[in-house]
Amino acid sequence: MSHQHTLTIHTRHEAVAIERLLQVTRYRGFTLAGLELKPLADVSGLLVTLSVVSDKPISLLVNQLNKLYDVLDLELHQAEAGALRA
Amino acid sequence: MTGAELLIKLLTERGVDSIFGYPGGAIMPIYDALYQSPVKHYLCRHEQGGAFSAIGYARASGKVGVCMATSGPGATNLITSLADALLDSVPVVAITGQVSQAVAGTDAFQEVDVLGLSLTVTKHSFYVRNVNDLAATLDEAFRLAQSGRPGPVLVDIPKDVQLAQVDYHPARLTAVDTQPHDALGGHLDAIAKARALLAAAQKPIAYIGGGVHMADALPELNAFLTATGIPAVTTLKAMGSVEKANPHYLGMLGMHGTQAANLAVQQTDLLLCLGARFDDRVTGNLKKFAPEAKVIHIDIDPAEINKLRFAEVAMLGDLKALLPAMTAAGDYRAWQAHCAALKQQYGWRYDHPGERIYAPLLLKQLSERMPDNSVVSCDVGQHQMWVAQHMSFNSPRNHLSSGGLGTMGFGLPAAIGAKISRPQDTSVLVTGDGSFMMNVQELATIKRFRLPVKIVVIDNQRLGMVKQWQQLFFAGRYSETDLSDNPDFVSLAAAFAIPGHSISHKDEVESALDAMFSWPGPYLLHVRIDETDNVWPLVPPGAANHDMMTDLPQWEE
């Protein structure tokens, strides 16, 4: 059964960071369900809200995204975070 | 100084002694800076070959391999090698020239989006916009290539950045991220659980991957295995990790692993996965892999934990510190005896009749005759699996094989890189007639630098592994696997001033090996084998590892 998950990701202020997020999402078998993007006020990075759908455990994507050089911080929204730990 | 001069100066300060590359328009300032510099540049004859040589250099030595290429086709030719390095976790830094920023994005001559193209086959790729960022970017590239799970990093440098003036500051040489070897904090609970599982286990197996030697943890591994007496199996990449004297070593597991290794893993009640990743060539049918086993998984890469197999106990950390902490003597005598019986029952046989050369026996003879600490590079296909099955190694750095990507054409340039990184050791290439032709142009590199690489071409005039699968699983429809129009390999080598000899009878083998090793320079030994010889055992696609096909040799049918 597919589930939707939402991630909030703080990346470096680089366009390539967004390319990487989308490429990893696709390659690891997650369908893009939503994408919001805004630069942080101090231009220290980008704040990305990424919604994905998949029947795979979200931990598979979280672990891969966390390895990306341009990802500075990643948060799985609270409801899903509980499921990830379970 | 210019950015290009700064780059070479920084590489020199970093101790880079060898670069494998090929010049071109967009990287000419860097090649100009390289001219008469202390860094030795090895001109390869194709960028893919150059990058494979950098991989061979890195894998044989443990250092970072460095390769260079120009923009456009030069950079695209690196891609296969970078993917190979990514899948086998090899630290490589690739430096590419790029068109000047003034024309970037205009489809300029030899312009391609190298950053975008390379991102999926590297840990990360950098595009240097400002010459003042060059030093920090290069520093970061080397740090990243070696940190955590190693891998390739690419630095794309536009020509205007190469030509721009910049002030020189000594390299910062950022330390690679490594955990202190006595740091067990955060793992104490997991270690206690792991020890409890080990104490309760009746039939444990250590499943050893390439991560162990990359963590520089082979002494700790062998101390652990000796102290605990746990039987061990290795992946293709980890061959040579277990000391030859260990009586409980069962060999390689997986699709072409030993029957003893696969059967023991299928029967184990506790699988201790060390620096390995449950690759599909290892597990066969994942759902049926080690079905009775609980799993302890230790790795440096968090993305590998629970990716394919749930681990009852998982530790992200340094094997060098964790293995001693997990060491506790157990009583596995009954299990050890069972594994020894499997090993005895399913040992290799070399008593083939007839006069033709049987490749497994030839490779066993090669293994016994080559000098200690030789580095064996191989290509991809049947010969690769025969090398893994029938040759023995005393270090994973002495067995270079394209494991994850399975890249034909890997072997010859890797053997070149190995010889350059370890000039005192013998570099042996075992290749097949299909693979050899994929980067055969690198014979010119051997000639140019007078590299005494020993080349053994095992020739069945077929793409043997594909043909084997066609025979077994595609009703004998041999689609495009006939290579009977191969060139005369000895004459081909002679065109590059490399002497050689061709053999086809088994009584020629020993004298031919002696001639090859006694010759002071490069040498090519062409070995004709029968195209009907296949690699056994074989776990068919979709099968569990205990369902191995073990076709008897033809003379017993």
Give an overview of the whole structure.
The complex is a heterodimer of chains A (86) and B (557). With 86 residues, chain A is of the alpha+beta class. Chain A has helices at residues 15-27, 58-66, 78-85, and strands at residues 3-11, 31-39, 46-54, 71-76. Chain A has a four-stranded antiparallel sheet with strand order 2-3-1-4. Chain B folds into three domains: 3-163, Thiamin diphosphate (ThDP)-binding fold, Pyr/PP domains (Rossmann fold); 188-345, 3-Layer(aba) Sandwich (Rossmann fold); 359-556, Thiamin diphosphate (ThDP)-binding fold, Pyr/PP domains (Rossmann fold, 3-Layer(aba) Sandwich), CATH 3.40.50. The longest helix of chain B is centred in the N-terminal third of the chain and has 15 residues, at 47-61. Chain B is globular. In chain B, 36% of the residues lie in helices and 15% in strands. Chain B has a six-stranded parallel sheet with strand order 2-1-3-4-6-5, with helices on both faces. Chain B has a six-stranded parallel sheet with strand order 9-8-7-10-11-12, sandwiched between helices. In chain B, helix 7 links the parallel strand 5 and strand 6 (152-158). Chain A binds chain B through residues 16, 19-20, 23, 27, 57, 59-60, 63-64, 66-70, and chain B through 115-116, 119-120, 123-125, 127, 144, 301-303, 305-307.
